[in-house]
Amino acid sequence: MPAYCNSQVFAPHPSVTINDDLHENTPASEYDLNSFLPPPSEPLHTNLVRVEPLIPILHADDLHRAFSASPEKQNPDAYFYPFPKGRPYKMKSETLIYMEKQRRRTNLLTFAITDLNSNELAGTIALGCDPLQASLDVKLLGVKIFRKFRGTHVFLHASYLVLSYALDPVAKGGLGLVRVGWRTPPTNIQSQKAAEKLGFSREGIMR
């Protein structure tokens, strides 16, 4: 059974440079997830996907291959590539810096999605919270399904696992929350359709 390290060290401005420790070779058992949200005690899985905390030594190589792939000409999908650049990365260090920035945001718990048919990394998904309300609700964030796995079982199965973990009672291994939200830019139509596919209801536009 995995033993995840999670110390919750708050960093008000998660600035990261190439000179920082990017944890490329930190063993998984020693990698500090640093999330206000506690991770599951072991990976979540269905018969088709596995969901587990995103850890550089396990997932950085595959994540970089996805982030450095050229976009399709007919569908640039700028939202797939990390904000704010919205373009492919050139160096692995960019992916490692991205992962470290995510780790330093204590309101996030980011997961890797593995397709069990191919045993390949298929994307990422995250839960995000307001620490003052984390006992009540969270948001589903950072859903990035790799091109090869779009339109397959991956999105629905991974979302089911993360939503179940968030909403299941603590006694059943979940977080015991009462609500999960989905926030997306008004221009990201693909994300809005994905939310509707999961049964989310549109509530309005944040200002």
UniProtKB/TrEMBL annotation:
Q: Which SUPFAM superfamilies match?
A: Acyl-CoA N-acyltransferases (Nat)
Q: Tell me where in this chain the N-acetyltransferase domain is found.
A: 59-200
User: Matching InterPro entries, A to Z?
Assistant: Acyl_CoA_acyltransferase, GNAT_dom, Ribosomal_N-acetyltransferase
Question: What Pfam families does the annotation carry?
Answer: Acetyltransf_3
**GO molecular function terms listed in the Swiss-Prot or TrEMBL record:** protein N-terminal-serine acetyltransferase activity; protein-N-terminal-alanine acetyltransferase activity
Q: What is the official name of this protein in its record?
A: N-acetyltransferase domain-containing protein
Q: Which organism is it from?
A: Hypsizygus marmoreus
Taxonomic classification:
Eukaryota, Fungi, Dikarya, Basidiomycota, Agaricomycotina
